[in-house]
Amino acid sequence: MKEINKYAKKSVNKLDLSLKEKRELKIQFIDHMTELYNNHKLEGFSDEDSLIYAIEMFNDNTQTNKKNHIKFGLISVFTIYIIIFSLIFVSVSRSDVSNIRLNIYRLIPFQYFFYLLQAFRQDKLSTIEILKEQILLFLSFIPMGIFIPIITEKYKSFILNLKKFIYFTLGLEIMKIILGFGIAKIDYFLIHLLGCLIGYVLFKLIIFLSKKLSNKKILA
Hints:
Layout: H1 2-13, H2 19-42, H3 47-95, H4 111-121, H5 125-141, H6 144-152, H7 158-179, H8 186-219
């Protein structure tokens, strides 16, 4: 049909493909929509209803395919991130086992980092290494603040995500105690939670800027 050909051509022209690829894809689009149109028409619907149905179903299928590809990509990236994150977390946690003399600071907020800053001013090489490790671990928590809202699909609610961040970071500290591969400290919990929150803020900022750009394109 003329309308289907026109819609297929319009859809293909939006894609960044060569002329040959566009022609091939256009034929596939037309075949798919024509099949949907004919099947719907055989069920007793009018030409207009069948055309609308074919285009709507085609759009739904296209959007679903796009979402599936995006979801697969995100899961792949998240899997790689989790592996790297686990290696960093376990490595830094194990290197902290030797700091037994700092146990008195474990339940006092900011006391451990206050001690590290004091030691850093005295140019203690061991303390500098610890700070580097903690900064690396802090940075590794930022992507978690982006991935958790995406995976749970609850990115609109700050409170829901805050709860998830708390459960996650607190769970890691408890796991360290149970498995005995590191020392749990309240400061670790706070700094890791801060990393997740920074990641969430960045995620919301990306969404805001994306919507703003999309609105500009629509109005242009």
